[in-house]
Amino acid sequence: PGEGVFSHLWLLLRGRNLSPILSFDEAAARLYLETLAEGIDQPPVDAALTLEGTTPTTSPARPGRALDVEATLAAVREALPELGREGVDLVVREVPPQVADAEPARTWVESLLAEELKLVLPNPQEGDPGPWSIAPEELAGMLATFVNEGRLHATLDAERLRAYLQGRVAPEVVVEPVDARFHFDEETGELVVVAPSAEGRALDVEASVQSVLAAVGAGHHVAPLVLRSVPPRYPEPITAEELGIRELVAEGDSYFIGSPSGRDHNIRLAASKFDGLIVGPGETFSFNQYLGEVSAEAGYDESYITAGEQLAIEVGGGICQVSTTAFRAALWGGYPIVERWFHHHRVGYYELRGYGPGFDATVYSPLVDFKFVNDREAALLIETEIEEAAHRLIFRFYSTDDGRRVEVEGPVITDETEPGPPIYQLDESLAPGTVIEWQTAQNGLTATVERWVYDAAGNLLYHDTFVSQYAPRRAAYHYGPGYQPPEP
What we know:
Layout: H1 2-14, H2 26-37, E1 48-52, E2 55-59, E3 64-67, H3 69-78, E4 92-95, H4 103-112, E5 117-120, E6 132-134, H5 136-140, E7 143-148, E8 151-156, H6 158-173, E9 181-185, E10 190-195, E11 200-203, H7 205-217, E12 222-224, E13 227-230, H8 240-243, E14 247-255, H9 261-272, E15 277-279, E16 284-286, H10 287-291, E17 302-307, E18 310-315, H11 319-333, E19 337-339, E20 371-373, E21 380-387, E22 392-399, E23 405-417, E24 423-426, E25 435-439, E26 444-454, E27 460-470, E28 476-479
Parallel strand pairs: 5-12, 24-28
Antiparallel strand pairs: 1-2, 3-4, 5-6, 7-8, 9-10, 11-13, 14-22, 15-21, 16-20, 17-18, 19-20, 21-22, 23-26, 25-28, 26-27
């Protein structure tokens, strides 16, 4: 016990030299270094391309730096025994940029934007559209860049180029294919070609994108487009058996005797547009679609049309004779009528030879159309014919008879109204005192026609009610100078 007391007293008075015991908290050191790195690290700067209008410029690359935390921790661990006498250097590494050089992109863009880019058709023919020129300013908006082996390159963006081709070029390039036109030989049951088919064409957008990219990539300022052919749906080799055309299934007619020469001409021209055409199963027939443009340039003459209270003269007058005849064929054929409009006034031509009011169909492209659906499983072949002696227009429908039966009743006439007093209009071109009747008076009325269509088993397929409300039409006279019209 005594020795212990003396030992403690000795330690208190003189002390003793002991070796230090050191402890290294690596987690705390890592956290410290990561915090320190926030003030040391600098990201690298890639070489870049910028445009000022259509002038490309570049900015140089600059390397960055980053504190290597793991390497610094290893250095600290190694220096622990000497830590009291010497410090430890931080390990900072250089971070290279991903894009070291933008000069390839600048050079290519400068060359591309030096002049316009022309897109041309392969082997263009007279009358073909093009070339299409893309100005440097527009090309600048289509640029895209990519990195290859640390160098920046440029090209045209495929999506933007595709949008340009689809919006600007494709609509001008397209040529619709032309189906062959046929007549049906009832004796042989075969189709007879009356007009040949023709292939159409369209822009192959995807192939054209690749063609343009390849051309500009090679430094060219003229790039060829790529076209693809579009075959007709009904070429000459097709047969009646393939289409299911076996017999006459419907017929409609109308008479236009007494028509002025312009109206007569227009009826014949418009009727020819429908002769020999095929309407596929399930397709909707649009009169205006097949009629096409109605203009003097398309060959039509001026003639009378119904317009408000008085007849008017317009290019294409008389075409409604053709749409009326097509309506009658579809009506008697039991086809679903999708769109049909009646005339503002009754038209005498459409009430000849047993037809009453309510069996007409007016058209006025593109606003007013006549449409029906070919709801049979077989195709429908339309033939038109004019019997010259009677001035009779006929629409014949050939298909497969599916046994449907059609019943039509009417017209039932209601709400008949008389016209007002005659209209007199001065015409300075007439001889003094001359009076001519411009249009005859006609009662207004409502005509109702009903149709029932039954299938082969007698089940009702369709029931239609066609209501036509015709306005009364006053008589109209044109008179020359000096004539005094009667008081109304």
